[in-house]
Amino acid sequence: MTRPATELDRLADAYFDADCALHPIAATHMGVAGHDTELDDFSPAGRAEGAKLRRATLAQLDHVPVVDDVDAVTLSAMRERLGLEEELDAAGLDQTYLNVIASPLQEVRSVFDLMGTGSAADRHTFAARMDQVPAALDRWVETLLAARDDGDVAAARQVRACIEQCREFTGADGYFSTVLADVESDPGGELAAAVARAAAAYEQLGRTLEEQVLPHARSGDAFGRERYQLLSRYFLGATVDLEETYAWGQAEVARLAQEMATTADKVKSGATVPEAIAYLDDDPAYRLEGTEELQAWMQGKAEESIAELSGSHFDIPAPIRRIECRIAPTHTGGIYYTGPSENFSRPGRMWWSVPRGVTSFGTWRELTTVYHEGVPGHHLQVAQTVYRSQTLNRWRRMGCWVSGHGEGWALYAERLMEELGFMDDPGNRLGLLASQSLRAARVVLDIGVHCGMPAPEEVGGGEWDYDKAWSFLSSHAYMAEGFLRFELDRYLGWPGQAPSYKIGERLWLQLRDEAAARAGDAWDVTVFHRKALDVGSVGLDTLREAVLR
Predict the structure, then answer these.
(1) Cα dihedral angle (329, 331, 335, 339), rounded to 10 degrees?
(2) H or E segment at 307?
């Protein structure tokens, strides 16, 4: 039964449409049509337009009636999200900031991963947007140089890494050299010319960063306690006690180390964790060769989990039962999810960005990642929210994403699969624990470095520095050095986001415990999951209010 749209729904939808017009990249990620030849205006003027829209909407929220519980959540979520974005903008911490993973440098390039080139119309649209790359990067440079003149420049480590990314994108085997490899025809060379102009713009961006930004970059990595607390609130949608969370993170690292040691002995009697990992890496039963095998395995496991959980633990509507697993056209080593379009013509997708030279993959490490990105993780969470058009407005379904909610749920989903018996194999369980250890270690690193807290004694105590951070991370994360070096740069340049996974999971578990205590004998975890997921991605404080109301 369709819920009638309220005045607040209409306001939220109007904001969503206006925000999509200002942020075409986000519109494409959400599958919203009409902006596929455009890119964001990253200039100070573009930022000002976004602030104008937020402020007008916040003012209107004060006068809109709330008619039901859905409206109550919408009002709480919009005030919290838009209000925090205003605070971030005032502090110079909005989305125009420069870092190795989530700044316009990466956003502009990555949006093309979601665009097809199969038909003549697709190629024309692709070329039209690619032609906007030089202007988009120039506008971002306006913002960077204005911030520089105000004394606000990213850390030198981030600037250098971004310069290197520009080189990688435009290198002989980089993105712009390979993007046309699968294009069957390009009449008149329209697409090739647009790609060449975009590549030249990225080359120029690298030079600008090196010549005009890097000399002014700050030497230290830490953002400071005050700015970190704001970023933590933004990524969690909740306020946490940073000292208590820092101590909890260290306790989690220790607990997981003990569990990994116990599990390693089950993998191979008497083995240490590194020995068990080496044993699993050499075991053909856990090994895939080549990206074709990797893609097929991902797809099979994703579809298997949907079939196993549908109807027994979750109600999974038919459109959500379709997921695509793909090898990404980049080589950063990350694994990520992109949601379906509004009408599900483009399905939810799991992407694996395979580092250059890596040809062998261990399934024992990555089964938990498939659950994280697929079902019951991001795909179930995101696609189910998109599906709920009869109840939720478009901003609630697609425009609101809170990292602590989304990534916290995905880690909770990994743990849930363990609880349901899907991770009983000792090798796969060691993979789950290794993933959890990485997530716990970055809670400690992120808060410790950026808030100036004392480093753990295992790395010598005292003040954190890069070497101590690397020592701590590499001692508790069992992954390739190149991946971990990128991860550490990510934490140093994007404060508050990485810890939102593990802290978010903690808040999800606390909410489940509180809901169970209130329900008593009537407790049903399946009902809890349905109710919580039906809320959609909102700040974790708003989620708690909605679930316990």
Answers:
(1) -30
(2) helix 290-309
Would you state the structure tokens that stand for residue 93, as one six-digit string?
């911490």
Cβ atoms 329, 178 nearer than 8 A: yes
Amino acid at 212: Q
Q: How many CA atoms lie within 13 A of 500 on its CB side?
A: 27
Average pLDDT, the chain: 94
| Paired residues of 448 in beta bridges | none
- Cis amide leading into 376 (omega within 30): yes
Count of alpha carbons within 13 Å of 19, Cβ hemisphere only?
20
Please provide the size of the chain in residues: 549
What separation in angstroms does the CA of 491 have from each of 101, 133, 443, 488? Answer: 10, 27, 10, 5
- Is the CB of residue 253 less than 8 Å from the CB of residue 521? no
Phi, psi of 480 (to 5 degrees): -65, 150
pLDDT of residue 334 exceeding 90, the answer is: no
Global pTM exceeds 0.90? yes
**Quick one: tokens of 378?**
């991001």
Q: Six-digit token pair at 172?
A: 């002989």
Helix (H, G, I), strand (E, B) or coil at 324: strand
How far apart, in Å, are the Cα atoms of 549 and each of 16, 75, 136?
26, 15, 44
| Residue 345: alpha-carbon gap to chain centroid | 22
DSSP 380-449: HHHHHHHH-TTTS-HIIIII---HHHHHHHHHHHHHHHHHTTTT-SHHHHHHHHHHHHHHHHHHHHHHHH
Whole-angstrom Cα distance, residue 32 to residue 95?
A: 20
Structure tokens at 173: 């085997």
Could you give the CA distance from residue 368 to residue 417 in angstroms, rounded to a whole number?
8
- Per-residue pLDDT band for 394 (boundaries 50, 70, 90) equals very high
Residue pair 160/214 in contact by the 8 Å Cβ criterion: yes
Helix 426-451 to helix 481-493 angle, to the nearest 10 degrees?
40
CB-count burial class (<10 Å; 0-12, 13-18, 19+) for 80: buried
Report how far residue 152's alpha carbon sits from residue 148's, in angstroms, rounded to the nearest whole number.
5
